[in-house]
Amino acid sequence: MSRTPLLSILLALSALVALPGCSQTPAEPIVSERYVDIELHLEPARDAPPGSETTRAWTTDDGRTLHLRHVDTIPGTEVRSVRAESLGDRPALVVELAPSGAAQLEALTTDHIARQLGLVANDRLLLAARIAGPFSDGFQVATDTLEEAERLHRSLVVSDDQ
């Protein structure tokens, strides 16, 4: 038997042995971003006696003062993704949550429809809005510009110096 056919047979056999490894499902992509904890703050109930709920004054970007109390925190590990994108003709921040974070947020928003909800990260009020209905596996925040959505995105990403 000459060397060329033997070499060809060995190469063909090694290719057959390697093929099963090629058919495996690719591994999950490596997550390149980690997210900060998102604190959930609510305005006091209208029927709450004055001083019965400990609140903190927060100033919005447009200069309004809101009095909100901390009610829950969604750990950054429960945030699946955060992205700035255009939804139709409107820029927005889109936040997707893992199942337990989604259940946490859904329970809170179901119980407090029509109340002001503030999202706080790194001791900074990111946004405040009225709860129009229960949230489920995430939420979208409409912004005036894509740059504003990108700023909110950056504020939720753990930086290397944290």
Uncertain ranges: 6-23
CATH architecture: 2-Layer Sandwich
CATH topology: Gyrase A, domain 2
Identify the CATH class: Alpha Beta
Beta-strand segment tally: 8
- Mean pLDDT, as a whole number? 82
User: In DSSP terms, counting alpha (H) and pi (I) runs of 4 or more, how many helices?
Assistant: 3
Order of helices and strands: HEEEEEHEEEH
Terminal CA distance reads 66 Å
Strand content: 25-35%
Rg to the nearest angstrom? 25 Å
Structural class: alpha+beta
- When the domains are counted, the total is 1
Largest sheet, strands/sense/barrel: 5 strands, antiparallel
Question: So what's the overall shape?
Answer: globular
Going across the biggest sheet, name each strand in turn: 2-3-1-6-7
Helix content: 25-40%
Tell me what you see in this structure.
Helices cover about 25% and strands about 35% of the residues. It is of the alpha+beta class. It has one domain: Gyrase A, domain 2 (2-Layer Sandwich), CATH 3.30.1360.200. A five-stranded antiparallel β-sheet has the order 2-3-1-6-7. It has a three-stranded antiparallel β-sheet with strand order 4-5-8. Strand 2 and strand 3 (about 65-75) form a beta hairpin. The longest helix has 20 residues, at about 5-20. The radius of gyration is 25 Å and the shape is globular. The model is unreliable at about 5-25 (pLDDT under 50).
